[in-house]
Amino acid sequence: MVSREEVVSFLDEFLNISSYPDKSSNGLQVEGKEEVKKIAFAVDACLDTITKAKAFGADMLVVHHGIIWGGVNYVTGLFARRVRELLKAELNLYVAHIPLDAHPEVGNNAQLLKLLGLEPKEPFGEYKGVKISFIGEFEEPKPLPMIAQVLAEKLPVDYVKSYEFGLQEIKRVAVMSGAGGFAIEEAGKKADLLITGEFTHADYRTAEDLRVSVIVAGHYATETLGVKALMPVLREKFGVETIFIDSPTGL
After folding, report:
1. Three-state SS for 153?
2. Which residue range(s) make up the domain with 211?
3. Mind listing the pLDDT tens digit for each residue in 93-108?
């Protein structure tokens, strides 16, 4: 058993949450039990994961997508329902959005590179003046379809889509988990390929015009990696029980 304050303090420092500009209110969003024995991890704080965390007997839920994005004006509707369920279960809600994308060890982007056997080599992905991702580099160029196949096999996603607008033989790989379309132009200048989670109509046209190859591997799937990598860190640090709650969207 460990105190809530110890866990929160450790996560705040380990994830360096104060260093990243973010529309998400990172850190402890909802206060629950003072003592923590079990911690659940999920991508999203939604009614499904809250209910499953409660069934697990969790004292804390650690997620990538929380329920407060920049502030609270009214506690009504769906927001009130989510808060009510958290408070009824005395479930602490801890959130790490951009900080969990950016972390060089357990972050979504670092872990995405590691799926391909690559190490985060060079900062990438400028977001509000801060780099939140990385570029990795193969020793020898790899065929783009082979890279897509590896991701399809290792990620919890129904399909991986390749947009082969640029190079077919890939050496430098830029990654941006989730909605990474904003990084297409930077990827075109620094890498042979961008791997991201989702792709919009506008993203397609940008990549097409810039001749940048892109692999899309699912917003949800690419953001399961960080919370999963964070689990053993807390388990070993505090001796708590942990569980990953899978609640896929197929997107």
Report:
1. helix
2. 103-219
3. 999 999 999 999 999 9
